[in-house]
Design brief:
The complex is a heterodimer of chains A (about 260) and B (about 525). With about 260 residues, chain A is an alpha/beta fold. Chain A has helices at about 50-60, 80-85, 105-115, 120-130, 145-160, 175-190, 205-210, 230-235, 245-255, and strands at about 15-25, 25-35, 40-45, 65-70, 75, 90, 165-170, 195-200, 215-220, 220-225. Chain A contains nine helices and ten strands. In chain A, a hairpin with a 2-residue loop joins strand 4 and strand 5. In chain A, helix 3 crosses helix 4 (about 120-130). The longest helix of chain A is centred in the last third of the chain and has 16 residues, at about 175-190. Chain B has a two-stranded parallel ribbon with strand order 1-2. Residues about 270-280 of chain B have low confidence and may be disordered. Classes of the chains: A alpha/beta (about 260), B mainly alpha (about 525).
């Protein structure tokens, strides 16, 4: 899959409408508005501190916006949190899992909170343990795992219930190439079955090849959006410019513009 | 609605606690040794061969000396517990409920109502308390001379008390949070103050002022009654405790439907701007030398970690002391009796606090030792490094002692309060070089395991990897206790007998200066010579 146009006139699956959020004097989001269409794998790019993690935390209801709102499948997160969360699978930026639960116990816990039945949980947990090559570690405490293994467990927890919407904040940090490949294939499989994904990442090569559309956030605002050719035009970059070159031009242009 | 998920949450939170305990062979072994040692004594008490209730006799004598009986003790403790666990939160606490990062990121992002999570955490706190409840029951049965069957009652009571305190804490935090959000915090504070002042003013002298004892009175009465032979009020106070827990749960249930996840405070997961004090950026080109850089590092550590908490702690401890004195006055407790009780416990409390900090101190020293190469590269004179280590290791125990001293000064004697701070300062001036040098050697070897977490949840593999850290932690703990006690006891006696005069203080200052100089030279020498392998 490569960056491509989305079908026109579709109802947005994930919608940020003029979302604002401050932490004391720090303004993390300054009126972020963007729409992610059904079946898209939307890449969310931006320099450190641009507001990507804050945006995703607002989308799962962990933070409340100071203004504006986020809706998922037409449901406002601040008004119908539980209904929205039934649809969502979320991988946080820093996967702080329960260090003293075993891998299987943790995934079973998430499955039960999702309302899945015992048999379904057992099948799905076994499937993901096998997919991410964690079968031998299922009885290990999470604190005994390496960073990459913890990331695999966090990804499994997000995918366990086959969510309709995936909100993924740096989901592949620390994963080995094999696991990264398996994770991307799994996301693609879910998208082909009707899911939508939003991925925040600094792995620009991956975003270029994997995402269907990209949004660039800087200082809490969406500054550019589209497929690679649209971004190239916006950045006034050449035909052969990579996403990395386009991204650097866009962000540097904003900094030089003093915005 | 949501009750099933609350049970699931409680079950897995408890499981996480249990796994940590069961897989920590050291904890299991220590508990087994403790129980085995007590078994013969318990058997003798059960068969009537041994005389029990030594502690009960001692407490009875202490209470009689202070002019207190069981009822006035219950009233006094109820006032103190309510002030500490309820009124203080209402007046100065933040409207935040602590959640572990995992609970914040993986429970609160599931389709679970916030009230289910809160109920689950209340249930899990009751389950987790069961382990400590066994010790509580043992203490009650063996030391207070109670019948063995009371032990089972006490275990259930401990779980109920933990649940009640947890539910009350959640309800209070939610109320404060909602008031903050609506800009009505001032109204909540004004109402709380009005209640406290009216209760104090209207209560007849010499009688327990019931409104000041609320809301923790049922808990305190149940605990005290459960520990006494003639427990006339045990059944009604347990019934009241159930009512307290029910009312707190109902309030939590009601209020939680009006808050967002922002009520939760999860360390390490919220953006830095919200969790720590802002420290203005400093240009290194403006620093006048490495000494200023080190001083700045200590300042930043303090700003980031604890300064505000300590200042609030000193104010809160002083306020609590004044409240206790007021309550004692209202109860007609003789001031001299209260002063004697607080004086004795303050010295013991300070030494225990100092000992507990010993383990934290060795952890900090190991971490500083790990960064030794940085100081070696940056500094020409390692005495600066030694002074930095001193500052880092001294600030926290002295600040903690100041919190305890503020309470002691308000209740008992200001000279005793000064003694406590001096004792900790002197004790730690002597202890610091040993802990710092141990930390240097352990840190410079590149051992990354944190001593404190090693103690909390050790496994044989971790211990096998670096048993020296456990030895260092044990030694630090003992050293801190012995040095603090050896300074605190003679100084306290001098303070009580009025011997804390200017010549003695001058002599102590000389000893402190000599310890600091000798200690700095020792640390600097070790810092120059230790082989860095990290």
């Amino acid at each position: 899959m490569a960056l491509a146009n989305h079908p026109p006139m579709a109802l947005a699956t994930v919608k940020f409408v003029d979302v604002r959020k401050s932490y004391g004097r720090v303004r993390a989001l300054r009126g972020l508005s963007l729409e992610v269409m059904p079946g898209e794998i939307y890449g969310l790019l931006g320099p450190n501190g641009a507001g990507k993690t804050t945006a995703l935390k607002i989308a799962v209801g962990l933070l409340r916006p100071d203004g504006g709102y986020v809706s998922i499948h037409g449901l406002r997160v601040d008004e119908r949190r539980e209904e929205v969360l039934r649809l969502v699978g979320y991988v946080p930026e820093n996967p702080f899992l329960f260090p003293t639960l075993t891998v299987r116990e943790f995934l079973e816990f998430v499955g039960k909170l999702r309302g899945m039945d015992e048999g379904e949980i057992d099948d799905r947990v076994s499937y993901y343990l096998s997919l991410f090559d964690l079968e031998e570690r299922e009885r290990s405490l999470i604190r005994e795992l390496s960073r990459g293994m913890v990331q695999k467990v966090a990804a499994s927890a997000a995918l366990l219930h086959e969510p309709k919407v995936l909100l993924l904040d740096e989901p592949m940090v620390g994963m080995d190439p094999e696991a990264q490949h398996a994770f991307k294939e799994e996301v693609r499989r879910l998208v082909e079955r009707g899911a939508t994904a939003v991925i925040s990442s600094h792995l620009l090569d991956m975003v270029e090849r994997f995402c269907t559309r990209v949004g660039v956030i800087s200082r809490g605002r969406l500054v550019a959006e589209g497929d690679l050719s649209e971004l190239r035009r916006r950045a006034e970059a050449g035909e052969d410019a990579t996403l990395e070159e386009v991204f650097v031009k866009l962000v540097r242009g904003l900094s030089n513009g003093g915005r | 609605m949501g009750g099933g998920k609350a049970l699931t949450i409680a079950k897995y939170l408890f499981k996480a606690h249990l796994n940590a305990y069961v897989r920590s062979k050291l904890s299991v072994a220590l508990d087994a040794v403790f129980l085995l040692c007590q078994a013969p004594y318990l058997a003798m008490v059960a068969s009537g061969e041994a005389e029990s209730g030594v502690m009960r006799e001692l407490i009875a004598q202490a209470l009689a000396a202070a002019g207190l009986d069981k009822r006035s003790l219950e009233a006094l403790l109820s006032c103190a517990a309510s002030a500490l666990l309820f009124w203080l939160s209402l007046l100065v606490g933040k409207g935040r409920i602590p959640a572990s990062p995992a609970e914040y990121l993986y429970v609160l992002t599931q389709p679970v109502p916030i009230r289910s999570y809160l109920l689950g955490s209340v249930l899990s706190s009751a389950l987790v308390s069961l382990r400590g409840a066994v010790v509580y029951a043992y203490v009650a049965v063996a030391l207070m001379g109670l019948p063995l069957e009371r032990g089972l009652v006490l275990i259930g009571l401990a779980a109920l008390a933990a649940a009640a305190v947890s539910a009350l804490s959640h309800a209070t935090s939610l109320a404060v949070h909602l008031a903050e959000e609506r800009g009505l915090r001032w109204a909540l504070r004004a109402a709380a103050l009005a209640w406290l002042l009216a209760a104090a003013a209207l209560a007849p002298s010499g009688e327990p002022p019931a409104p000041l004892q609320l809301p923790l009175a049922p808990l305190v009465y149940a605990v005290v009654e459960s520990l006494s032979r003639r427990a006339e009020l045990l059944v009604p106070s347990v019934a009241h405790l159930f009512a307290l827990m029910g009312a707190s749960l109902a309030a939590t249930w009601l209020l939680s439907s009006r808050v967002s996840c922002e009520v939760f405070l999860a360390a390490h997961t919220l953006p830095r701007a919200r969790t720590g004090a802002r420290v203005e950026p400093v240009s290194f080109s403006n620093l006048r030398g490495p000494g200023e850089a080190l001083a700045l590092k200590v300042y930043v550590d303090l700003r980031r970690g604890a300064l505000r908490a300590y200042l609030v702690g000193v104010a809160a401890a002083a306020a609590l002391g004044v409240a206790l004195r007021l309550a004692a006055h209202l109860l007609g407790v003789p001031a001299s009796g209260l002063r004697d009780m607080i004086s004795v416990s303050a010295v013991g409390g300070t030494a225990a606090l100092s000992a507990a900090y010993g383990v934290v101190a060795i952890t900090r020293a190991v971490e500083t030792g790990r960064a030794l190469w940085v100081y070696r590269v940056a500094l020409r004179d390692m005495r600066l490094y030694a002074l930095y280590v001193y500052a880092e290791l001294l600030v926290h125990p002295v600040a903690l002692a100041a919190v305890l001293a503020a309470f002691t000064a308000a209740v008992a004697d200001p000279s005793l309060a000064l003694t406590l701070v001096l004792a900790v300062l002197l004790g730690w001036l002597v202890t610091c070089p040993v802990i710092a040098i141990m930390g240097l050697y352990l840190g410079a070897r590149g051992r990354a395991a944190m001593v404190a977490s090693l103690l909390a949840s050790s496994t044989w593999s971790q211990l096998a990897e670096d048993p020296a850290q456990l030895s260092a932690a044990t030694l630090s703990l003992m050293l801190a206790y012995v040095t603090t006690m050896s300074v605190a006891v003679p100084l306290s006696i001098a303070a009580v007998e009025g011997g804390l005069n200017a010549p003695l203080l001058a002599a102590l200052a000389l000893v402190a200066l000599a310890s600091l100089t000798a200690g700095s030279l020792l640390i600097a020498r070790a810092a120059r010579r230790v082989e860095v392998r990290a």
